[in-house]
Amino acid sequence: MNEGVLSGLRVVELGQVLAGPFAGAIFADLGADVIKVEKPDGGDDARQMGPAFRYGDALNFHEFNRGKRSVTLDLKSPAGVNALHDLLETADIMLHNLRPGVAEALGIGPGEVCARHPRLIYCAMSAFGHVGPERLRPGYEPLLQAFGGLSSITGEPDGPPVRMGASVVDQGTGLWTVLGALSLLERRHRTGIGGVVNTSLLETALLWAGQKMSSYVNTGKLPERHASGHPNFVPYQSFDTADGPILVCCGNDRLFVRFAAELGHAGWAADDRFATNRSRLTNQKALLPMISAVMRETPRAAWLERLQRAGVPCAPINSIPETLAEPQTQALGMMQNVPGEDFSLVALPLSLDGERPRVRGAAPRLGAHNEEVLKP
Fold first, then answer.
1. Looking at the annotation, which residues are catalytic?
2. Are residues 138 and 32 in the same domain?
């Protein structure tokens, strides 16, 4: 495996399904030695979440567990807990997204673990947060999108609330966990003492809905659903062309002048109803159907060429295959071959000194590293 910027850092992950394993995968891609502790009977539930892809494990398991080592411990037994503590003696970070209350019931809650390993950074990820009346409730991505308000602001204006298509809450929680852990690691360099990082799916959802919440708290106005549109800009949404949808973003009046000219209706920019963004917001029910009628007359590629040449921000609404085929996507090198395997995974979305961290290896088979990691 290639080294990374976090080479020499040891992370012990008790992760299940997505949020915890995603945090572990970030550490692994950045070069940390991530030891994934799994239950002997079946391991991480994500191994079975979907059709078998490689070695009997689902593709999602490979996605979020690449580059790690797997050991099996029965944490319901004193011997298993003692073995975990042996691992933590040489670990820098421990992270888990166990069901709320389980870590404490097993005797591996933050109080017990940090007292025994004061240099350790202990990361606990939960569904609803570590305080409050719902702190012991378990939860999954769509439940927290619903509870946290995200579903209510997603979808068509007259349609039902919709779940966002990506696991933004789970993966966002993993990101905040890594950020918190690295923050305490920096503090530990100065003090020699670790600490506790608490993150949750709900807190992540609340942050992603933050602009809408701040608007409601400070203005009293309930947010509306805008499909692909925007509450504060017009036109700033998708339009059907003759052969496919396109997204246009006129973020100021100067861009609208250019857009209207390319549509062959330069006079719109001089019309009092449409001359300013605020007037377009007020009169969008008159303007948007006229734009839609013009856009449907010409193929998407022609619109993209014309609008981009004029400096009007726009993009095709790509399918996944279309996204992968885009030269810009390919130039970024986000899809990486897994060393020693016949498949590829999406890499981390950052570069360090001009180089993207590499996927360091495949996801481990259950208990594959027991002999090399666990003390005899």
1. 170
2. yes
